[in-house]
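Hi U.,

Before I forget, here's the chain from the pilot set. I'm dumping it here mostly so it's searchable later in email.
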Amino acid sequence: MKIWVLRHGQAAAQAATDAERPLTAAGQQEVRLMASLLQGQPLDAILASPYLRAQQTAALVCTELGYERGVATAPWLTPDDDPCEVLRYLAERQERNLLLVSHQPLVSQLLSILCEGHRGAHVPMPTAALACVDTDFVAAGLGSLVLHRTPADLSA
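Structure:
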């Protein structure tokens, strides 16, 4: 299984609630840039946090890729969700290529647990960063980080 992890693009600093913060124009551009790395990937599903900025990020990825299956909302992908719970949900999935669109600190912690078996390894995930973990079985420490890119890597 390949688990693709995309942090949402840059979002507005303020909104009525954190969940309602939209992407900025710069954030939209970051996402479009990073979506190019997903071209040709046989994504079976895209799951996104219910927060607006993650939903907008996932929708932009769909548009850029011509992905027509739509986005499923995963209430367990919000910033403060427990990455161990996310692992339990992922272990039940049947997809071979799955894209998760979420937030910090969840994305870094999830990558750390998947690849190192604990939350302590720091995987930098600035806005719109994309990582891919390859694993035969979804469990702590069994994944290999096969891709990690940030918008700065592509625009340099």
